């Protein structure tokens, strides 16, 4: 465990949409420091979203999808007297967005047979419509929290 909390680094907005959340998505998609490739994937996915959804602004679709996918509750293990309980806690907005972006990336990478930008666009559009693997993951997380509601008093 570290002595002090790590210093929070400021993420610069992405050049095309000047959005910090898009920049965060690019950083999450990036593998082995290949940022330009990650940018091409994300911007290509946004072009596909623009085309498929009929919206002028793909950022609106992306933000709505993020809001749909973002979990409100999660469980954390707490050890009390030799027993480990799954204690439901509220997820703050920053962590919720990070989880949503990670889930979008994971489920996009899990699909095969299409280029990454198409898979990413499909997962974002599915989240926008309230369906898809990331939404299922959010629902499973909420179900776990609901099932362990009895242990909520262990929260501290």
Q: Overview of this structure, please?
A:
The structure is a single chain. This protein is mainly α and 156 residues long. Helix 1 crosses helix 2 and helix 2 packs across helix 3 (58-69). It is globular and about 55 Å long. It has helices at 20-29, 35-53, 58-69, 93-110, 116-129, 133-147; strands at 73-80, 83-90. The two termini are 19 Å apart. It contains six helices and two strands; from the N terminus they run αααββααα. The chain has a two-stranded antiparallel ribbon with strand order 1-2. It has a single domain, classed as Ribosomal protein S7/S5 (Ribosomal Protein S7), CATH 1.10.455.10.
Overview in brief:
With 156 residues, the chain is mainly α. It contains six helices and two strands; from the N terminus they run αααββααα.
Keywords:
10% strand, globular, 2 strands, 156 residues, Ribosomal Protein S7, two-stranded antiparallel ribbon, 6 helices, mainly alpha
The share of residues in helices is 55-70%
Give the helix tally: 6
Instruction: Give the structural class.
Output: mainly alpha
Mean pLDDT: 93
Q: Biggest sheet: strands, sense, closure?
A: 2 strands, antiparallel
Q: How many domain modules?
A: 1
Low-confidence stretches: none
Instruction: Give the name of the CATH architecture.
Output: Orthogonal Bundle
Tell me, briefly, the overall form.
Answer: globular
CATH superfamily: Ribosomal protein S7/S5
Work out the number of β strands: 2
Strand order, main sheet: write it out: 1-2
The fold-level CATH name is Ribosomal Protein S7
List the helices and strands in order: HHHEEHHH
């Amino acid at each position: 465990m570290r002595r002090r909390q790590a210093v929070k680094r400021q993420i610069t907005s992405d050049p095309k949409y000047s959005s910090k959340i898009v920049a965060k998505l690019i950083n999450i998609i990036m593998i082995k420091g290949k940022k330009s490739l990650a940018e091409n994937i994300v911007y290509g996915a946004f072009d596909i979203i623009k085309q498929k959804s009929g919206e002028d602004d793909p950022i609106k679709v992306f933000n709505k999808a993020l809001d749909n996918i973002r979990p409100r509750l999660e469980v954390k293990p707490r050890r009390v007297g030799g027993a480990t309980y799954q204690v439901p806690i509220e997820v703050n907005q920053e962590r919720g967005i990070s989880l949503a972006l990670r889930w979008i990336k994971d489920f996009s990478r899990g699909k095969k047979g299409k280029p990454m930008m198409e898979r990413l666009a499909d997962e974002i559009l599915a989240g926008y419509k309230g369906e898809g693997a990331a939404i299922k993951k959010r629902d499973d997380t909420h179900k776990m929290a609901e099932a362990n509601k009895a242990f909520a008093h262990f929260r501290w």
